[in-house]
Amino acid sequence: MFHIILFAPQIPPNTGNIIRMSANTGATLHLIEPLGFRLDEKSCRRAGLDYHALADLHLHKNLDDC
After folding, report:
1. Domains of the chain (ranges plus CATH)?
2. For the chain, which terminus, N or C, has the lower number of CB atoms within 10 Å?
3. Stated pTM of the model
4. DSSP letters of 47-59?
């Protein structure tokens, strides 16, 4: 299985595309804080971040926790 790590992502549409890709491929996605957005913001849902319910998504406080 593949693991994808995004360190302090800032752009919701780019992160949304990667979340969709991980949901479609079965890859595990790790988001390392701080995020430049909130996952529950309306603008994020428009960017496709609502796929996070279908993806194996993990949120971490720092890289060492990943």
Report:
1. 3-65 (3.40.1280.10)
2. N
3. 0.85
4. TTGGGGGTSEEEE
> 14 and 36 in contact (C-beta within 8 Å)?
no
Cis peptide before 34 (omega within 30 of 0): yes
Question: Is residue 28 classed exposed, middle or buried when 0-12, 13-18 and 19+ CB atoms within 10 A define those classes?
Answer: middle
Kindly list the distances between the CA atom of residue 7 and the CA atoms of 34, 42, 43, 52, in Å, as whole numbers in the listed order: 8, 22, 20, 17
Beta strands in 1-66 (DSSP E): 3-7, 28-32, 56-60
Check if the beta carbon of residue 2 is closer than 8 Å to that of residue 23. no
